[in-house]
Amino acid sequence: MPHLEIEGALRGEGLRVAIAVARFNSFITDRLLDGALDGLRRHGVADEAVTVVRVPGSWELPVTVKALAESRKYDAIICLGAVIRGDTPHFDYVAGEAAKGIGQAMLSTGVPVAFGVLTTNTLEQAIDRAGAKSGNKGFDAATTVIEMAGVLRQIRG
Prior knowledge:
- This protein is an alpha/beta fold.
- The protein has helices at 26-42, 61-70, 90-109, 123-129, 137-156, and strands at residues 17-22, 50-55, 76-84, 113-120, 130-132, 135-136.
- It has one domain (17-152): Lumazine/riboflavin synthase (Rossmann fold), CATH 3.40.50.960.
- Helix content is 47%, strand content 22%.
- A 4-stranded parallel sheet has the order 2-1-3-4, with helices on both faces. The protein has a two-stranded antiparallel ribbon with strand order 5-6.
- The two termini are 22 Å apart.
């Protein structure tokens, strides 16, 4: 007997999506946001079904994601930020805690969250991942949440 296989499709019709985006390093995060919005539109998510929430920086993303997920207004959430390594350990604290907090919010609420927070060593690496050589990680985050929302809908029936 064949096995059952569950896989998400890139069909965003009917999905409600929130995007939490950090203003810090906005010259990068604005590009990520443009990519995410493009990815959602291309896969059928209606503009009026998308809410963009701007926060000061990546440090503030976890509490924002948790509040968005707990509201039960959204099928999926995209996090966008850019943490670029400097000369102090600040990078390690912000990047690590943002990742941990966003992951905890996703696990505690069951709402799929895409981690579109760039954690790079240089500004050039961030630019490359925000629409230059390495594509746009905002666009990638959009396709991830569409797929994961579909996977979880199938699992949950």
